[in-house]
Fold this sequence. Notes:
about 0% helix; mainly beta; single chain; two-stranded antiparallel sheet; two-stranded antiparallel ribbon; 2 domains
Amino acid sequence: xxxxxxxxxxCQQPIEAPEEMAGQAAACPTCSQQITIPNSTPEAPAxxxxxxxxxxxxxxxxxxxxxxxxxxxxxFHTGMGKKIDTTL
Length: 88
């Protein structure tokens, strides 16, 4: 039995599902967000070079200032290793 590996779009938790579930709706076991199981394991995106004056966000590759822990583009917190809700 083959499996599909992907990350939850809400919390970025790695998930594996049986290939037979491709296209079906399910809830993330970590954050309970409703997700659709993708048709196949996505290919890893090419790594973007880090910004010259800092680092790149590990989630969205946006440039981050040196020493920054929170990406202002996607809300990824490097210390926690996941996206956090940044809504005011």
